Amino acid sequence: MAHAFASLETAGPVAVWLIVLTFIFVECAFIFGLFLPGDSLLFAAGVVLATHNSELSAWALSGVALIVAVVGNQVGYYIGRHTGTRVLARKDGKVLNRQNLQRAGEFLDRRGFWAVVLARWIPWIRTLAPMIAGAARMDLRRFTLATTIGAIAWVPTLVLAGYYGAGILRQLPWLETAAIVVSVAFFLGGTGWGIWRYRQEMAKPIDEAGEDLEHVSHPHAG
């Protein structure tokens, strides 16, 4: 996998699209996404597309990735609705532990609708919020509206910031190259670290002592 993504810097727009859409869907839908660097990926994609002068592609990717992020959260919602959150917590887990799940649940309980919107900008809550909302039976229409607003504010902002930010640097070729290298390296490093952390967390036994979080959030919370 690392070898495949090592070509991101020289990848054409089609390869960038495939990588971005796959990673965004996984990050927004499944617990594995908790460990993926979605923010840096979106920014890096914009930077790489800028090297190809693909402005239309950057805007189009923003729109399609936005839709994929919403669909991914819908999948996460239904997973939480049907499985709850009990199986997520791990004994001695660094990230997937009962305390973090409780914190995410309390955040959703306090903020309700706006918690789902804001969750797009909080990496680990971004993945957990849809599952917790589903387990708590949050109204599906409200959840869909909230996650759509969040995606609109999240995806285009990062992709286009990377694209136009790299465009400004074109007058300084060495700095543009450095921006590409740093963006891609951060993405690759984050992905490798995420895979390692995920394997470490999943190797730990499920925390059977904890209760599910269905009681934490309320479907009518606003």
Q: In one word, what is the shape?
A: globular
End-to-end Cα distance: 41 Å
| DSSP summary, beta strand count | 0
Percent of residues in beta strands? under 5%
Largest sheet: none
Count of structural domains: 2
**SS-derived structural category:** mainly alpha
- The proportion of residues forming helix, as a percent range, comes to over 70%
Given as residue ranges, the uncertain stretches (5+ residues, pLDDT < 50) are: 1-7, 215-222
Q: What radius of gyration results from the CA coordinates?
A: 18 Å
H and E string: HHHHHHHHH
Number of helices: 9
Integer average pLDDT: 77
Domain VTT: 36-163
Membrane topology: Multi-pass membrane protein
Transmembrane segments: 12-36, 56-80, 143-166, 178-196
Keywords: Cell membrane, Membrane, Transmembrane, Transmembrane helix
